[in-house]
Specification:
Layout (H helix, E strand, L loop, with lengths): L6 H5 L3 H34 E4 L3 E7 L2 E6 L2 E4 L5 E7 L4 E5 L3 E3 L5 E2 L5 H4 E3 L5 E12 L2 H7 L3 H18 L3 H7 L1 H18 L4 E12 L5 H70 L1 H17 L16 H7 L6
Antiparallel strand pairs: 1-4, 2-3, 2-5, 6-10, 7-8, 9-10, 10-11
């Protein structure tokens, strides 16, 4: 048999032990309110302080009602009554549609999953395109954001997808792919901002940008053939315009030159005719007043114009019977 050193080992705890345990329990119950009070005070002190990050503001609510907004730093609030929500107001958020970025960096990695439920869209000319885009936004009114929008990201995603589908449906496939990409970005951003403003969301759309727009893989070969044909058409048209721009301006310049020369010639002839007429009238008036002098002057002027054009001149005496000696002398190189 086992050896028992104490009676309680055989018959259980003694009465003294039970009394001592009851006394300790009563002492603990007496200290319980004090412990609870200390815990409440510690919790109150702990919940009285809060911090706001450098890119955030703190929105304070008292029993659910907005009270104030605090700037970055360490602040105090009424414990258990006031609650704080830190809202990033300087951070630019981004939502991706049709794709997901798994790792950003020098070489960006994207999720292999295809999000056709977001990106597959119908254009205005009944063609199908896979449209991928991003929406960047920030919070410009944190109070409106907290009290008017339950799920900001979900709201932005739903509205963005609806607006993009509407705008893409108003344009042709070529406009979405090439010519109107910038206009589509601007139109989607404006419509998205108008809807969010009507909700008093407190959200500002920073940018909307189409990332990648392609036809589905099933129709890519046919689509590429159509594009090649259109590019060939544009090439021929551009070549024709190039020739047109070379030939037509040159012809117009030559025509303009001929017209100007003709106008100059006509003006010159008119001026010369008017001058000759004026000269004739002046000569006629002088002739009427002094016929002999005028006749002699006209004779001398005419001879002056004629004689300097003659290569050889022979002055012969009217009484001379022959001119052979003169002709003989002229062959030796002398003009008389």
């Amino acid at each position: 048999m086992a050896d028992f050193e104490k009676p309680e080992d055989l018959f259980g705890p003694s009465e003294d032990f039970v009394k001592e345990a009851k006394k300790k329990m009563q002492d603990f119950k007496g200290m319980l309110p004090l412990i609870i009070g200390v815990l409440i005070i510690a919790g109150a002190l702990f919940s009285s302080f809060y911090s706001v990050g450098p890119d955030e503001v703190g929105v304070i609510r008292r029993f659910g009602k907005y009270v104030r907004t605090t700037n970055p730093g360490l602040h105090m609030k009424i414990p258990f009554i006031e609650k704080v929500n830190n809202v990033k107001v300087k951070y630019i958020f981004k939502e991706e549609f049709g794709f997901r970025t798994t790792k950003a960096g020098i070489v960006t990695q994207y999720a292999p999953k295809e999000y056709f439920d977001e990106s597959l869209m119908l254009t205005g000319d009944l063609n199908v395109l896979i449209v991928e885009w991003i929406v960047q936004f920030k919070v410009n009114d944190p109070v409106k954001l907290l009290f008017n929008i339950r799920n900001p990201r979900g709201t932005i995603r739903n509205i963005s997808e609806a607006v993009m589908r509407q705008v893409v449906g108003d344009n042709t496939v070529n406009e979405v792919l090439t010519t109107r990409r910038v206009e589509i970005n601007q139109e989607v951003q404006k419509n998205l901002q108008d809807i969010l403003d009507s909700y008093n969301s407190g959200i500002q759309i920073v940018t909307v940008k189409l990332q990648d727009v392609n036809p589905p893989d099933q129709v890519k070969p046919s689509f590429n053939e159509v594009n090649e044909a259109k590019q060939e058409k544009e090439k021929v048209i551009n070549q024709a315009w190039e020739k047109y721009n070379k030939i037509i301006p040159k012809a117009r310049g030559e025509a303009e030159k001929t017209i100007k020369e003709s106008e100059g010639y006509a003006l010159n002839r008119i001026n010369r005719a008017q001058g000759d007429a004026a000269k004739f009238m002046a000569t006629w008036e002088a002739y009427k007043n002094s016929k002999d002098v005028t006749r002699k002057r006209l004779y001398l002027e005419t001879m002056n114009d004629v004689l300097h054009k003659v290569g050889k001149k022979f002055i012969i005496d009217s009484k001379e019977k022959g001119i052979l000696p003169l002709l003989y002398l002229s062959q030796k190189g002398g003009d008389q």
